[in-house]
Each structure stands twice: as C-alpha cells, then as structure tokens.
Specification:
The protein is mainly α and about 300 residues long. The chain has a single domain, classed as P1 Nuclease (Orthogonal Bundle), CATH 1.10.575.10. The protein has 16 helices and 2 strands. The protein has helices at about 1-15, 25-35, 45, 50-55, 60, 70-75, 95-105, 110, 115-135, 140-160, 185-195, 200-205, 215-225, 230-235, 250-275, 285-290; strands at about 175, 180. It has a two-stranded antiparallel ribbon. Helix 2 packs across helix 10 (about 140-160), helix 9 (about 115-135) packs across helix 15 (about 250-275) and helix 10 packs across helix 15 (about 250-275). The radius of gyration is 20 Å and the shape is globular.
Length: about 300
C-alpha cells in the first residue's frame, strides 16, 4: 500500500510541473535593485541601465506562452529544480550530466527541472558579451546584448531564491493520495514582492556584493540554502492568504528573500564581469568590421 501511495505522489508531480515565477513586477523590482547595488568596478554603461535590464527580465516568462509551443517547451523547465527527485544523488555539475542522471532515474529532465544549468549558461553568455565590450567598448549593439543576457540571468537567479522553485511541494504539500495541502500557495509567495510594494532603492542598500568563486558550486550552494527554507514557507501558510494585511513574520520573510535575490543576482553580474577579463574571443570575430555600417 505504501508503495502504491508513493507512486500516486510521483504521478501527481509528473502531471503538475510548476508554471510560476516571481510576478513580473517582482522580478522588475529585484532586477532594478540588483543593478543599483553593483560596485563601481562594473562598467558604467551597465550600472546606469537598471530600467533596461529590468525590461529584459520579463522575457523568460514571456517565452512560456502557449501560443509559442516550441519556445514554451524549451523554456518551461528552466525555472525550477525539484531537489527531492534526485534522491541521494548530488546536483550534477552540468546539463549533460543532469540529462544522463534523469535517464537513469526514469524521469524527464523537464520533470526534475533544469534551473541550475539555465543560470550557469546565461552567466557565461553574459561573460562572453562583457568580453566583447572590453574589446569594443563603444559598440552599442554589444551593450544592448549585455542587457538582454543580464535580464535572463536575473530571472533565473531570482527564481532560485524562491524556495518553492526548488521542491516537489511547489504549490502545496503533496499528500499520499496525490492531493496538495495549501494548494495555491505558490502564486501568493510569487506575488508578495509586488503586493508589499518593496522598493528597489531600499533593497539595494547595505548589500555585500562579491563575485562567486567557482560558478557551479556557488549555484549548488544557493539551491541548498533555498531548499532549506521550504518548511519556513509552509509555516506561514495561513499568513500568505491575506497579503493585504501582512503579518510581521511574512514581511520579514519576504524582505529576506528579496534581499538575497538582489545580492545573488548582483554577485553573478560581478562574476560574469570578472570571468570576461580572461576570455579569449575567437580570432575570426571582428565586431569593428562587422558592425561598421550599424548606423545605416
């Protein structure tokens, strides 16, 4: 009987993969704050572009629209990782290793989620764009590319700081019969930053922004820290029901997650900038020649 109940739980998870993220306005607030808090060693063009980067942070969610099924299929699993489904296995170091492990476990990668790899890959893409900026600092096309890549990075970094993006209990605690206790909680948590009207300028204050050492170990550490807070989310289950009259505990929790989202996003921007310093671009790439007529 216990085995049958476990099968029901897994089957419920397979049929109900998460579709949420921080509300768009929440991502906007967090991204503006992340750019505002960057140290002066980051390039000025980037530090002055919080509105443009925040504009781009919406794009990963837009890509999940049902009217674009191919983009939706590719994008969907990039926003979460259900840690429990990996069982005793550590989070793999890269996407290919993750796909291989999922095959061994009999699970589709989208079922488990691919958030850590989306974040690592977009951080490295931003590093490449920054490397181009270092070589061609007056090229506006490169700067615009940096903004777009930074928007994608921010979205995934901030999703990683929302604990319900890291668990099978993403929208309620899964019961043995497949039902969910506290169903609907995910949207409440996602909306909190926007509903509480958190201020980007305040969130940017007193942040300690440092570049990550090794990228993937830092990502895994962040996932473990966020996953440890899943129970804390559900301890506030009744509080989430009335965001118009938030309790002090809910406000404190939301502020904590928001500030960590800002710190984490900014640290990855700085990480990408530092990585770009040692990137050797391919010899065939000559933006000065390729973009010579960009004003035409």
């Amino acid at each position: 009987m216990k085995r049958f109940c476990n099968i029901l739980i897994v089957f419920s998870i397979l049929l109900t993969t998460p579709a949420w993220a921080w509300w768009g306005g929440g991502h906007d607030i967090l991204t503006q704050a992340s750019v505002k808090t960057l140290p002066e060693e980051m390039p000025e063009f980037f530090r002055a572009a919080e509105k443009m980067v925040a504009h781009c942070v919406y794009d990963p969610d837009i890509s999940k629209e049902r009217s674009t099924p191919h983009a939706r299929q590719a994008e969907y699993g990039e926003h979460y990782i259900d840690v429990e489904l990996l069982k005793e296995h550590p989070i793999p170091e890269g996407r290919e290793a993750h796909i291989k492990l999922c095959a061994e476990l009999g699970l589709a990668p989208r079922t488990v989620g691919t958030l850590p790899y989306a974040l690592a890959e977009w951080t490295e893409r931003l590093a490449l764009a920054f490397a181009e900026y270092r070589k061609w600092p007056d090229n506006p096309m490169i700067q615009h590319k940096c903004f777009l890549y930074a928007g994608f990075l921010a979205h995934y970094a901030q999703d990683m700081c929302q604990p319900l993006h890291l668990t099978i209990h993403f929208n309620g605690i899964v019961q043995e019969d497949g039902t969910r206790l506290h169903a609907g909680i995910h949207e409440k948590v996602d909306s909190a930053i926007e509903m509480l009207r958190l201020d980007p300028t305040e969130l940017a204050k007193a942040q300690k922004v440092e570049a990550a050492g090794d990228l993937m170990p830092a990502i895994v550490k962040q996932i473990k820290a966020g996953f440890s807070l899943v129970d804390s989310v559900y301890e506030l289950a009744e509080d989430w029901k009335d965001l118009k009259n938030p309790t002090p505990a809910l406000v404190d929790f939301t502020n904590d997650r928001a500030r960590e989202s800002v710190r984490w996003t900014a640290s990855l921007y700085l990480t990408a900038w530092k990585l770009s310093e040692n990137i050797k671009l391919p010899g065939w790439l000559d933006r000065s020649q390729n973009d010579a007529n960009m004003s035409d």
